[in-house]
Amino acid sequence: MKQPDNKQLGIKFDIDGKALSQGEISQAKKHLKIKSKSNLSFIIAVVVLGAAVSYRAITLDYDKELELFHISLYIGMWFGVFTGLMIDGTIKRKLQMVMVAVILSSSASLFLSMLAVLLMGHATVWISSFNILASALACMWVLTRYDEVIKAKESIKAVNDKQFHFIRKASANFSKLYHFSEKIIAEDRAPLVGEYWAYRDWIRSKIDQNNKSKR
């Protein structure tokens, strides 16, 4: 496993390598906890900026503030829902990403459009473009940065009963997976979700290779 650092968030599970120790798992959890708080602080900052600029624009008696607010919410909501559905993972993870993406994209959309109004005047013709741009950029950030942290945190959790049964069955049928399972047992811990993903991906790769060889 390559230890996560400031440039690398993903946690690698190498079936050919050494299984993670308890110390490495604890270190990864601490690192991801810090990254998660950092990302959450960024989201909160965007929300606060959106609220502050919106309040300032409304106090200037901008006659379209309610319409602008609705546009920002609608565009941000749909971008957020789309982002959540694009995530590959469990229903819980998809819902989590939808909520974060909706909050972030709506706030960014409202902030940028309101800022444009303050700087450019009643530029209503450009408002939808500013909303779409801000929402798209916010959701791209969610898909790349925030999703990496969430996925990494999920990968170092212990497997559930269904996933554990899959690992046991896979280990019984493939010697390579059996040897890696023995390394996990030697570390005196339960298998991790990331290791379950590694087993699943390895089996899928094996099936694809067999199908290609039969053609």
Architecture overview:
It is built from 7 helices and no strands. It is mainly α.
Q: Key features?
A:
single chain, 215 residues, 7 helices, 77% helix, disordered N terminus
* Oligomeric state of the chains present here: single chain
The averaged pLDDT comes out at 81
| Beta-strand residue percentage | under 5%
First CA to last CA: what distance? 35 Å
> What count of helical segments does DSSP give?
7
Query: Helix- and strand-based class?
Result: mainly alpha
**What's the β-strand tally?**
0
Instruction: Tell me the series of helices and strands, N- to C-terminal.
Output: HHHHHHH
Query: From the alpha-carbon coordinates, what is the Rg to the nearest angstrom?
Result: 23 Å
Flag low-confidence runs: 1-9
Shape: elongated
Fraction of residues in helix: over 70%
Largest sheet: none
Question: How does the SSE layout of this entry go?
Answer:
Layout (H helix, E strand, L loop, with lengths): L21 H38 L5 H22 L4 H30 L6 H29 L5 H13 L1 H12 L6 H22 L1
Helix pairs in contact: 1-3, 1-4, 2-3, 2-4, 3-4, 5-6, 5-7
